[in-house]
Specification:
The complex is a heterodimer of chains A (228) and B (405).
Chain A: E1 6-17, E2 20-32, E3 37-41, H1 48-55, E4 63-68, E5 71-72, H2 78-88, E6 89-92, H3 104-114, H4 119-133, H5 148-160, E7 166-170, H6 178-194, E8 198-202, H7 206-211, E9 214-219, E10 222-227
Chain B: H1 2-11, H2 15-55, E1 58-62, H3 78-87, E2 91-105, E3 110-118, H4 120-124, E4 133-136, E5 145-149, H5 150-156, E6 163-169, E7 175-186, H6 191-196, E8 197-201, H7 202-208, E9 217-222, H8 228-239, E10 243-247, H9 248-251, H10 253-291, H11 293-301, H12 306-342, E11 344-345, H13 350-355, E12 361-362, H14 368-385, H15 387-394, H16 398-403
Parallel strand pairs in B: 3-8, 5-7
Antiparallel strand pairs in B: 1-9, 1-10, 2-3, 2-6, 2-9, 4-7, 5-8, 6-7, 11-12
């Protein structure tokens, strides 16, 4: 077996809500391997989004460690973590979160621009991904001219266009209808199998849970059960 | 490039808000540029009036005369000076003068004056004093004619054709005096000059002051006033230490200092206007940042570093400041254009303006200094106003910002 891309060891996250400590994540150990299609499931408040944020270097643990490709994230500065997210990770959010003043094409090009890629190359790559995801006709539309499903396709394109090691998706189907959600999951499954991109989802949507090759079920910040 | 494009488009997310801020910046710039060009015009007019009407580009005296203008301090050999001036290609016109202080008396009154003995014909092409004659005529060359300021004539209660007596210490230590007949009255840009200056033929002044052929000064114009220092240095080398060669900057140090101080004070003025505008910019940029907290969270999540977020917000403010400045400058230029030819008539304040030696009509002057002050200081102040909002944006934690509602 290959080394895991992501590892969590004794991971804990406690934050305060109106002065009351909330233990969102309690002592989680987890290995994520290349080409995983992992779903972190659980009821609201079970800690799945917090865990996803910790794995995605968006949040820092109260205790324990996250290792990405063998490197301990707790030893990295904010700037290094930003570089890591830019170079090696992709993110898909529940509310799509495209930049409203940019067109679909520019939104997809944006992370490549941040990486300092030449205009011609990033343009070609963005167009290729859009063709692949069937959204080429949306290239010059702004987010407010697109449906929720179209926006989420653009968000997926933005997440995968840089060939990241892992894509973290937080409730990606929560704001779209079932048919569109299924289509998006088909798309991500295809990216997983064809482009070997690792996906980690946090979701309580049964259709997402059903697609997971691996499943972690959280309850009260702990792994309640797992599959695969 | 996307970052610039992003900053530009962010500016227009809330068009009404941006237009209001742009308008306030533009109004500030119009007011500042108009004030700056008019004030510069006023200061330059003060200088040009003095140089053009009497001082000229440069003067030569016996060494020490400028600091201590006693009648004994004369140029004993004017021919020597004239030969030097005649052979210098940069001297376009010059004239001999006798200058001293004395008393001018009429039958009813008397007043201390600066007596200037001139060669009327040569002085015609050297200064503009004859253009200020409002009654009578300029000196014709006839002996014992005098032209004086209208204000002085009123004080002495004399008019054209009346007789006045000038008295001053002569070179031989006696009290020299001469009877003159009023040929003309002038009214210049400066009430002070009008009250204290009289012009008489040089020969009459030389006789009165027992100077023989000696003179007090040579006044001259040069081909290129921008090279005045270089020309003065050359003349000093040729004339030796016996004489002082003084460009107008040395003759009117207070005015020159005023111009230098003016440049600095206008920079302060621009900064003050900029500070007033900063609060509008801070408010606008803070609102803009607060409206986009979630978006900043996403930008940070996908790997945008704090430095780029800082640059993006500051660029938005820079665009705001630059656009407002350019619009304001263009409007200011449209205000300047007609005023530069017609001038701003401030006759209502002519009394106080004339006491400053300015004149009643102010012609604004647009210099490179005005342009750089406006186009650099105001946009920079706008950027300064965006620093705090930009730092707030930088400090956002992506995990919290993304969830912000």
């Amino acid at each position: 077996m290959t080394d895991p891309i992501l590892q969590a060891r004794g991971l804990e996250k406690t934050y305060e809500d109106n002065g009351v400590p909330v233990h969102a994540v309690r002592g989680i150990d987890l290995d994520v391997f290349a080409e995983d299609f992992l779903v972190i499931a659980g009821p609201s408040g079970s800690g799945k989004t917090t865990l996803l944020n910790l794995l995605g270097a968006l949040d820092t643990p109260s205790a324990g460690h996250v290792f990405f490709e063998g490197a301990d994230l707790s030893s990295k500065s904010k700037s290094e973590l930003a570089s890591l997210r830019l170079q090696r990770m992709g993110f898909i959010f529940q509310a799509y979160n495209l930049i409203p003043v940019l067109t679909a094409l520019e939104n997809i090009e944006f992370t490549m621009m941040l990486r300092g890629m030449e205009k011609a190359e990033r343009h070609a790559r963005a167009q290729a991904v859009m063709e692949e995801l069937g959204i080429a006709e949306l290239a010059h539309k702004r987010p407010n001219q697109m449906s929720g499903g179209q926006q989420q396709r653009v968000a997926i394109a933005r997440a995968i266009v840089t060939d990241p090691a892992v894509v973290l998706a937080d409730e990606p189907t929560a704001n779209i209808d079932t048919a569109t959600g299924n289509a998006l999951l088909d798309l991500m499954e295809r990216m997983n199998s064809e482009k070997h991109i690792t996906f980690i989802f946090s979701s309580h949507d049964p259709q997402v849970i059903g697609r997971g090759k691996r499943l972690l079920h959280l309850r009260d910040g702990r792994i309640d059960s797992s599959r695969g | 490039m996307i970052l610039l494009s992003l900053a530009w488009r962010n500016l227009w997310r809330n068009t009404r808000r941006s237009v209001i801020v742009l308008t306030s910046v533009a109004i500030g710039v119009v007011a500042t540029v108009t004030l700056d060009t008019l004030s510069r015009g006023m200061v330059f007019q003060m200088l040009n009036n003095q140089v053009g009407s009497h001082v000229t580009h440069m003067q030569i005296h016996r060494a020490g005369f400028h600091k201590n203008p006693v009648i004994q301090s004369t140029i004993a050999d004017p021919e020597q000076i004239e030969n030097v001036l005649r052979s210098d290609p940069d001297i376009v016109q010059y004239s001999r003068r006798v200058v001293t202080f004395g008393l001018l008396s009429s039958a009813t009154n008397s007043s201390g004056v600066s007596i200037v003995g001139i060669d009327p014909e040569r002085e015609r092409s050297l200064t503009t004093i004859r253009s200020y004659i409002v009654e009578g005529s300029y000196l014709t060359g006839a002996p014992r004619e005098i032209v004086l300021g209208k204000a002085l004539a009123e004080k002495l209660e004399v008019g054209l054709g009346d007789r006045v007596v000038a008295m001053a210490s002569a070179k031989d230590g006696t009290m020299g005096s001469e009877l003159f007949r009023v040929a003309g009255l002038f009214e210049t840009f400066s009430s002070e000059f009008d009250k204290t200056s009289i012009y008489v033929p040089r020969s009459s002044a030389q006789t009165m002051l027992a100077l023989g052929s000696e003179v007090s000064e040579f006044a001259m114009l040069v081909t290129d006033p921008d090279r005045l220092t270089e020309i003065a240095e050359r003349l000093r080398g040729r004339l030796g230490e016996e004489y002082e060669v003084l460009p107008y900057m040395d003759l009117l140090p207070f005015l020159v200092l005023q111009i230098e101080l003016y440049d600095q004070s206008m920079v302060i003025f621009y900064v003050i206007v900029g500070i007033a505008l900063i609060f509008g910019i801070i408010n606008t940029m803070l609102m803009s940042v607060f409206e986009r907290i979630k978006e900043f969270g996403v930008l940070k999540a996908v790997g945008m570093k704090n430095g780029r977020i800082l640059i993006m917000v500051l660029t938005e403010a820079l665009f705001l400041g630059m656009l407002g400045t350019v619009v304001g400058f263009l409007v200011g230029y449209l205000v300047y254009l007609p005023l530069s030819t017609s001038g701003l008539d401030l006759s209502a304040f002519s009394g106080s303006l004339r006491s400053f030696g300015v004149g009643a009509i102010i012609y604004p002057v647009l210099t490179a200094g005005v342009i750089t002050n406006a186009l650099i200081i105001i946009p920079l102040m706008a950027v300064a106003g965006a620093v705090y909002p930009a730092v707030r944006a930088m400090r956002l934690e992506p995990v919290h910002a993304i969830r912000y509602v």
